[in-house]
Amino acid sequence: MNHLRLLSLLTLTLIGCKRDEAHPHTEVPAGLPARSVTVWTGKSELFMEYEPPVAGREGKFAAHVTALAGFKPVTEGRLVLTFKMASGETLTSRADAPASPGIFRALIKPTKPGKCTLSVSVSGAQVEDEFDAGPCEVFADEAAATAATDAADKGGIGFTKEQQWKTEFATLAVGERELQTSVQANAEIRAVAGQEARLTAPTTGRVTLASPAPVVGMPVKAGQVLATISPRLSAGGDRSTLDSEVQAVRAELDAARAQLARAERLFKEQAVAERQVEEARARVEVATARMAAAEGRLAQYSAGASGGASSGPNVFLIRSPLAGTLVAATPTSGESIEEGKLLFTVIDMDRVWLHARVFEPDIPRVEGARSAWFTVEGYDAPFVVDEKNGKLVTIGRVIDPQTRTVPVIFELANPEGRLRIGQFAHVFVATGGATRGLAVPESAVLEEGGKPVAYVQVEGERFERRALTLGPRSLGWVGVKEGLAAGEHVVTRGAYEIKLTSASGAIPQSGHVH
């Protein structure tokens, strides 16, 4: 990972170095440091660098326009730059297409000095927007422009538009949100108790899979047959022995039936007691059962010898006791298995348990908890457990002596099956009431030297590093007590790249108009 970060740093540095080759800077005459303005709207961002306007002299403007849907450069459309003088005169300049991706160039030659306002509009399929670039002034000569322009180094971290457009980058205006205090814990996604079936072999024998063959991931109905097992014959069994056994048991059954018939006749003649009739009936029932077993063993032997599928009374059907998803299937058709071997696992995935382990000191805070949210590796948005989709199942009453934790279990709906049994999660168990305050996405917060920091875009290509004092975390957001102000644009994607650029010392040129 460190190698990848260093490669990213090298790439971004090279992008900054090649900027001069791809988009040569036009030198401003000595004494006329460039000005810049940055304007954000809900749809786009304008970062414009320009020469201080001087009466009778053509001024150059370079407008960088970023579409905030994806934070990528605007690559088509028309830009109109408008000077509205205090006297009522209006000057405009139009660029019918970007000179290069994201950069529109315009020229305006004011005729007389005076106060003015500056506005920009962009129209095209990608962006349709207007920017109020604020007040401006046309100066009488270059000396007046120089005297009125603050040429001081503003400092900060340089990260050019070209670098922003070529990497994963995004910002967000800092604002207030409802945040709820919580207790953090590690958790695991588990099957709901009673909604997981592990089907094992009831006997030693040969497996025959159902048709179509069960496949992991397939839906299973309650009572559906997944396989059959033909019990294995006892050692040393052969056809002649089984035939002899059937004949012997048949003779025994015939004798028992004859004895029963004789006992019933004598009973009618009151020559024997009723007890003897009952005993004769019992012998017939026993012999009948033995006969069925012997014939079953003979039929099984015959089917096995010919390679056919057994369908006799001794075949065991492996049925799913519940509806769900087949998550494990180990046997193959024709395989010989031992009694007790795990064959299939079926789980009802419509609802799952979030099984958290809360440390002993936090137990009083989670008593009475009714909601939580948690994150799972690979998913950007957190999952929520509340009264709409789940419930608290239990808070354990016995502390694990090894980990000093208790289980806190929530049950929640899993209609799309996104949560999988065995996944690890980082859970926040809600405690207390919600509070309102400044908040930023957790992705905006980095840790440097063990302390939280964020990077703020103070203008188009200039950033500042801010140390933060954090508040509660809630649903992917973190409260900020100190370090940021409402309305500032904090970097939510690409902050690490800005940090690397700062560490490299690769600061782009400034005071130029592209």
Structure characterization notes:
The protein contains seven helices and 32 strands. With 514 residues, it is of the alpha+beta class. Strands 12, 21, 22, 23, 24, 25, 26, 30 and 31 form a nine-stranded antiparallel sheet that branches. Strands 10, 11, 27, 28, 29 and 32 form a six-stranded antiparallel sheet that branches. Helix 1 (2-22) crosses helix 7.
Compact description:
It contains seven helices and 32 strands. With 514 residues, it is α+β, with helices and mostly antiparallel strands.
Please write out the topology.
Blueprint: H1 2-22, E1 35-40, E2 44-50, E3 59-67, E4 72-73, E5 78-85, E6 90-95, E7 103-108, E8 114-123, E9 128-138, H2 142-148, E10 157-158, H3 161-165, E11 170-173, E12 175-191, E13 196-200, E14 205-209, E15 219-220, E16 225-231, H4 239-268, H5 274-306, E17 316-319, E18 324-329, E19 336-337, E20 342-347, E21 351-359, H6 363-366, E22 372-376, E23 383-385, E24 390-395, E25 405-413, E26 424-441, E27 446-448, E28 451-459, E29 462-467, E30 469-474, E31 477-482, E32 489-493, H7 495-504
Antiparallel strand pairs: 1-2, 2-3, 3-4, 3-7, 5-6, 5-8, 8-9, 10-29, 11-32, 12-21, 12-26, 13-20, 14-16, 14-19, 15-18, 16-17, 18-20, 21-25, 22-23, 22-26, 24-25, 26-31, 27-28, 28-29, 28-32, 30-31
Question: What is the straight-line distance between the termini?
Answer: 35 Å
Low-confidence residue ranges? 1-31, 304-312, 507-512
Structure annotation, total helices = 7
Outline, from the CA principal axes? Answer: elongated
Oligomer: single chain
Radius of gyration: 40 Å
Number of strands: 32
Q: What is the helix content? A: 10-25%
Strand content: 35-45%
Largest sheet: 9 strands, antiparallel
Mean pLDDT over the residues = 85
SS class: alpha+beta
